[in-house]
Specification:
The structure holds three protein chains of three kinds. Chain B is mainly alpha-helical. Chain B contains eleven helices and no strands. Helices cover 80% and strands 0% of the residues of chain B. In chain B, α3 runs antiparallel to α10. The radius of gyration of chain B is 24 Å and the shape is flat. Chain B starts with 11 loop residues before the first helix and ends with a helix. Chain C has two domains: 139 residues, 3-Layer(aba) Sandwich (D-Maltodextrin-Binding Protein, domain 2), CATH 3.40.190; 86 residues, Periplasmic binding protein-like II (D-Maltodextrin-Binding Protein, domain 2). In chain C, α3 crosses α9. The chains are: A mainly alpha, B mainly alpha, C alpha/beta. Chains in contact: A-B, A-C, B-C. Chains A and B meet through α3, α4, α6, α7 and α8 of A and α1, α4, α5, α9 and α11 of B.
Chain lengths: 222, 265, 279
């Protein structure tokens, strides 16, 4: 217990980093995932092919490698400096990597959501004279979102846990802190693990409950 | 395509416009690719000496194939144990006894919420305190993969069983089966079949997650392959591209297999 | 049918798994590494596999580097030919575990002798005294030591204390980047994104030798790290035998030769052989 109590402040700071990474990446993934979904159902073959290729590659590559590519590829080789401060720079690199990876899953979920929207909806929209973009944005996507609230919740929980892999680009979040603590307080491994595990349970469990409740509330009655 | 109803079949003007837009999109994508290519070229990432080692037989024999073997053996062990764990806990959560159902639910929810990385760390560093022996990196990785993916599989199977029509259970009881038989012979096999796509994507997740073994020094594809090659030829990026390619090929093959299984049954 | 065959598959797979997991290696009856070397003519030695110049696995599957040469020399003195040595990769996190479990007979892997580690294992040596230093681009004339790091970007490997030390003791304004491997750090220093990599000078020399003309070691070590050969905690006989072997290696010139061959290409000045610390 001693380790958890004396290091309480730094542990909270590490979890705060986890929360920030999760929140920003979640927002990014939602936006990028929606754009990718739109691309995958677009009338243009080039857009469809590009989006499909993107999703296939990102979904099947380990996140460790995706983050390695953002760190070394974007950071060191493309020379993209997002901030002069290393910590901030790493944070944004991690956000880019997590967003790139997670948005592929968001896209898959949304696409299956689109499949649940009945054909008549889009047909009615078209007969009113709405074009592709407006049909998608006003009619079908909103319904698709309501259908996939639960899967999106699972993706958010997975994202929260995946932020631990941001240590690959040198972001010091909860898992890094846990490892450091285990190295310093070798005799308190179990307490330290349970403490950090409890932190993640506290983050993830309410998310699961919230999204479960939301998905029931928002379900499209048919 | 089932999405074709989102837009009208384009007329002559639409076809022309679409063609133009396609060219614009393709040009934009090519521009991005060219930018990356030029920047990487500036840093010498396309230099032949960074890429040719990846074609050498001895590089494959020493780094890639042993790494692949490590990744696959951890994944296979993880899949088998996770499936067992999943079946046991799915059944436990479906139990009629509260004292079985609730602890099982707690275990499943706990392991679903804890990041795999933490589980692997803990198994590796905590085993000495907990059971008096240091476990191997392989055991730590398989431990983490089993508990995490097992709890997800438990949830998938449980959802599968719950989605079956009530008649299945009732009919099984009607022909005189006992509780265990109903579950084992009637409900679970159907749940597995119904949930096959979800199960396979979980197995893909598991395979990718085995890459986290590098954190405790487990000899897998990312550690042995990427770092081993990069230490010799200082070609992190080319090696990473190759390793990512290998993962993508394996996962796509698994995906294809799942499709075929799903169609045949 | 589907159900039953599925269960059978799981049962068989689970059984075979537990069998392999518990099978493990046969318990060794040799009390000391000396006995094992004498009786079996075989040793398993834990080494680093990703550090050029010290311990590196090469594409043909063999290992090269200074640690490897030391290990081979010591093994030979114990009566084991190179063909009887199995090198096994260790990483910093699992060296003590490997020794305690008997997965390796000794560890020669840039293994610093510390009091904390002496609680778990024992050390022969030191066979090399390294010092923390900086690796910078060859054309970088401004970075002359840890004090010059203020406002610069420094790379180190995650979970290592050396970088923290630089920050607290020399340059408070230095920014720290933690990477997972030295290779990534080297890439970033070469790419100009970071300014320096810090760790033990001999490790840095290995990388400088890999990129001649592009990277250099600053050459002002600001700490001492004594590399020892780790073995089982209670193996006093083994410790003595290995120390004798090291003494001989220092005396007959093989030590200098091995060091020169491994990291000499970087211009690394070969020091005097260290003083053994027998206990």
């Amino acid at each position: 217990m001693e380790a958890l109590l004396t290091e309480g402040g730094t542990i909270l700071a590490a979890f705060w980093m986890t929360v920030r990474l999760t929140a920003v990446s979640a927002l990014g993934s939602l936006v990028l995932g929606t754009v990718l979904t739109a691309m995958r159902v677009a009338p243009l073959g080039a857009l469809r092919t590009a989006a499909t290729a993107y999703v296939t590659v990102l979904r099947n590559t380990p996140l460790t490698l995706v983050l390695l590519f953002t760190g070394l590829g974007i950071g060191a080789n493309l020379g993209l400096e997002l901030s002069d401060d290393i910590a901030t720079n790493n944070f944004w690199l991690a956000v880019i990597g997590l967003t790139a990876y997670t948005s592929a899953f968001v896209c898959e979920a949304l696409r299956s959501g689109l499949n649940t929207v009945s054909v008549g909806q889009a047909e009615a929209a078209r007969s009113l004279g709405l074009g592709f973009v407006r049909t998608l944005a006003l009619i079908t996507l909103p319904q698709a979102f309501r259908a996939v609230v639960a899967p999106l919740g699972s993706i958010l929980i997975a994202l929260t846990k995946n932020t631990t892999i941001a240590l690959v680009v040198g972001v010091s979040e909860a898992s890094v802190r846990m490892r450091e603590l285990i190295e310093t307080y070798g005799d308190q491994v179990i307490e330290i693990f349970l403490g950090f595990a409890a932190g993640f349970v506290l983050l993830c469990l309410p998310m699961g409950l919230l999204f479960g409740w939301l998905s029931r509330r928002m379900a499209v009655a048919r | 395509m089932s999405y074709a109803n989102l837009y009208e079949a384009p007329g002559p003007r639409g076809v022309r416009r679409n063609r133009l837009l396609t060219v614009v999109v393709a040009a934009a994508l090519l521009a991005v690719a060219a930018f990356v290519y030029v920047r990487f070229d500036d840093k010498g990432q396309w230099a032949a000496e960074k890429w040719t080692p990846l074609l050498r037989g001895d590089v494959w024999a020493t780094f890639i194939l042993p790494g692949l073997a490590g990744t696959l053996s951890a994944a296979v062990a993880g899949v088998v144990l996770a499936a067992l764990f999943g079946i046991v806990f799915a059944v436990a959560r479906l139990s009629e006894h509260r004292w079985i159902r609730l602890p099982a639910a707690a275990v499943v929810e706990f392991f679903r919420s804890v990041p795999l990385l933490l589980l692997i760390f803990f198994a590796f560093f905590g085993s000495y305190v907990l059971i008096g022996v240091n476990i191997s990196a392989f055991a730590a990785v398989v431990f983490g993969l089993t508990l995490y993916n097992g709890s997800v599989i438990a949830e998938i199977l449980r959802a599968g069983v719950l989605s079956l029509p009530k008649g299945q259970r009732e009919a099984a009881y009607a022909v005189g089966m006992r509780k265990g038989q109903v579950l084992r012979l009637v409900l679970l096999p159907q749940a597995v079949k119904a949930m096959l796509p979800a199960l396979v994507s979980q197995f893909i997740v598991l395979l990718k997650d085995s890459a986290l073994g590098l954190i405790v020094g487990y000899d897998e594809l990312v550690d042995r392959g990427l770092n081993g090659i990069a230490a010799n030829f200082s070609n992190v990026i080319p090696a990473a591209i190759l390793i990512a390619g290998i993962f993508i090929v394996i996962n796509l093959a698994l995906d294809r297999l799942a499709h075929r299984l799903g169609q045949s049954s | 049918m589907f159900g039953r065959s599925l269960y059978a598959v799981f049962a068989v797979a689970a059984l075979s798994l537990t069998a392999t997991a518990c099978g493990g290696q046969a318990a060794a009856s040799n009390a000391s590494i000396v006995d094992k070397a004498k009786n079996d003519k075989k040793l398993v030695i834990g080494v680093k596999a990703d550090q050029p110049g010290l311990g590196l696995r090469t594409p043909d599957g063999s290992f090269t580097g200074f640690d490897i040469e030391v290990a081979k020399y010591v093994a030979k003195q114990l009566g084991v030919e190179p063909s009887g040595i199995t090198f096994k990769e260790t990483v910093s996190a699992n060296r003590e575990a490997f020794i305690e479990q008997g997965q390796v007979d000794m560890v020669v892997a840039t293994y610093s002798i510390t009091d904390a580690r002496k609680q778990k294992v024992s050390f022969a040596g030191p066979y090399f005294v390294a010092g923390q230093d900086l690796l910078v681009r060859a054309d970088d004339a401004a970075l002359t030591g840890p004090e010059a790091l203020n406002g610069k970007k420094l790379c180190s490997v995650a979970g290592s204390t050396p970088a923290q030390k630089v920050k607290t003791e020399y340059a408070k304004e230095a920014q720290l980047q933690e990477e997972r491997t030295y290779s990534s750090c080297v890439d970033r220093v070469l790419g100009g994104q970071l300014d320096a990599l810090t760790t033990d000078n001999v490790i840095l020399a290995g990388y400088a030798a890999q990129h001649p003309g592009k990277l250099k070691v600053v050459g002002k070590p600001f700490s001492t790290e004594k590399y020892g050969i780790g073995l089982k905690k209670d193996d006093t006989a083994g410790r003595k035998a290995i120390n004798d072997a090291l003494e001989k290696m220092f005396a007959d010139g093989s030590w200098t030769k091995a060091l020169q061959a491994s990291v000499g290409a970087s211009g690394f000045a070969v020091p005097q052989a260290p003083q053994l610390e027998r206990y």
